[in-house]
Design brief:
This protein is α/β, with parallel strands linked by helices. It contains 20 helices and 10 strands. This is Chitin synthase.
């Protein structure tokens, strides 16, 4: 009994000592450490937005340098803290293991971690097997209708149409349709300028009122005469070989119903957010969609650049234009919805890494989170739709790949709130352990995107992957829970003119 009491006393003393050490480190390090972290996180506040619009290049360059240096300080600080706080981490895990709830949570966490690791290795395997389909000959290329919906894009729509007209695609097989969706700025003027310069190569239309991107595309689908429809956002620039590379899979694969292009960021010269998103897009497209393509099940063909087989579009066009969610018309996620409906028909949806497009992305935090909210809501809606057919006999041949991708996305949605609750609990009870372990995890997990981008492009830009992960973890973590809770809400959120 005395030994038991002695061990209990020692255990209590050890806990007390660990918490005292943790508290001392917390009170000593946090004021210095949070200052470095603040340099990274402030890009989400209005004060930093002034820098984004500042025309002084030296200030922008200096700010970029400060953020990158701060990122390294944060990463080094996290590694140091994890090392120093090992006794506290051990005690935290021991406390969890000594309770039924804690043990259950620990087993569940390890299981999820093992699943995610296996799924990641599977994606690497698929990526290593992926190869873009080379362009077919001019004679084999199908007739193609390009649809460019535009709303409040100004002069950029003129640049978009010029880049399309300059494509290395047989002119007699190319139809270009530009549709102004009731813009409030000078978009229609620049469409007219493009028409004057390009002549019969482009046909322009003006919606009598703003009805949304889906309705502008719908008009284009009904007017188009090509065997393949290509949709391109009006703030995007394509390369000369993009179109022929994009549509070639329709020739080589009779069951191909849609193709996703390779999206990169156009406005990434100065502002930080586009620099971060450029690295993120490379990971999202050249790694994730390449892996999905090997399963014939790319889940989303991006609005910036996508191609669809004509028959596949018209097979689902009435359902697509009249789509509703919880009784309300769907005015977002038109690209994900079209992809979903084409997958449902049993078609393959592929990705072409050699079909490049450069597109504008938000430069300010407000625009970024609105874009992510729209994407998040669409993801929830289309996952529900996919659940209705993915476990049926919707496709000839193997359906395991589509089902695995669906399960992975559904798991991410299902685990959102449990993970959020645990995160809040961790922050309240052990703030320093949370901060250090989270940043250390970012250092480990984000190293793959850094190395991937560095190998594909260059090392200096790849470092932004660390900064983006910190921003997303601490400044955008609320997006997915909010998008799930408000999935029924409509609205594009980012289409209006900026306030003066």
């Amino acid at each position: 009994m005395e030994n038991k009491n002695l061990n209990s006393t020692k255990s209590y003393s050890l806990k007390k000592e660990n918490r005292a050490n943790e508290q001392n480190l917390y009170s000593f390090i946090l004021p210095v450490y949070s200052k470095s972290l603040h340099q990274v996180l402030t890009i989400g506040y209005y004060r930093i937005q002034d820098y984004f619009t500042n025309k002084n290049q030296s200030k922008v360059g200096s700010l970029n340098g400060v953020v990158l240096i701060s990122t390294f300080l944060v990463m080094i600080g996290a590694a140091f803290l994890v090392y120093q706080l090992q006794p506290s981490f051990e005690q935290f895990n021991l406390d969890r293991m000594n309770s039924t709830f804690g043990m259950t949570f620990l087993v569940l966490s390890i299981t999820l971690l093992a699943y995610k690791a296996c799924f990641f290795l599977f994606k690497i395997y698929l990526y290593l097997r992926y190869k873009s389909i080379k362009s077919v000959s001019d004679e084999e290329l199908p007739t193609c209708t390009i649809i460019v919906p535009a709303y409040n894009e100004g002069k950029l729509v003129w640049e978009t149409l010029k880049s399309i007209a300059n494509s290395d695609y047989p002119k007699e097989k190319l139809q270009i349709l530009a549709i102004d969706d009731g813009s409030k700025d000078d978009t229609w003027y620049w469409m007219q300028q493009a028409k004057l310069q390009l002549g019969d190569r482009v046909t322009i239309f003006q919606q009598p009122e703003n009805k949304g991107k889906r309705h502008a595309l719908y008009r284009g689908f009904n007017l188009g005469t090509g065997d393949v429809f290509v949709t391109i956002d009006s703030d995007s620039i394509v390369k000369t070989d993009t179109l022929r590379n994009l549509v070639s899979p329709f020739v080589t694969n009779e069951n191909c119903g849609a193709v996703a292009g390779n999206v990169r960021v156009l406005n990434n010269e100065k502002a930080m957010l586009p620099k971060m998103l450029n690295v993120s897009f490379v990971m999202s497209f050249e790694f994730v969609r390449a892996a999905e393509s090997m399963l014939g099940s790319v889940l989303c063909t991006p609005g910036a650049l996508a191609a669809y087989r004509r028959d596949a579009v018209f097979n689902c066009l009435p359902e697509w234009i009249n789509q509703t969610f919880m009784g309300q018309p769907s005015d977002i996620g038109e690209d994900r919805a079209m992809t979903n409906m084409i997958l449902k028909q049993g078609h393959h949806v592929l990705f072409q890494r050699n079909a490049h497009v450069l597109t504008n992305v938000p430069e300010q935090y407000k625009g970024l989170y609105k874009m992510f909210i729209r994407w998040g809501r669409s993801n929830v809606r289309e996952n529900i739709m996919m659940a209705k057919y993915v476990f049926t006999n919707f496709r000839e041949g193997s359906k395991a790949g589509s089902r695995l991708l669906f399960f992975n996305q559904s798991l991410n949605i299902i685990m959102t709130y449990p993970f959020l609750l645990f995160m809040l609990f961790f922050i309240v009870t052990h703030p320093l352990l949370f901060l250090s372990s989270t940043l250390a995890s970012i250092l480990i997990i984000s190293s793959f995107p850094v190395l991937f981008y560095a190998k594909r492009y260059n090392l200096s830009e790849s470092i932004w992957a660390y900064t983006y992960s910190i921003l997303y973890t601490f400044g955008l973590f609320w997006i997915t829970p909010y998008a799930i809770a408000t999935a029924a809400k409509s609205g594009w959120l980012t289409r209006e003119l900026p306030a003066n």
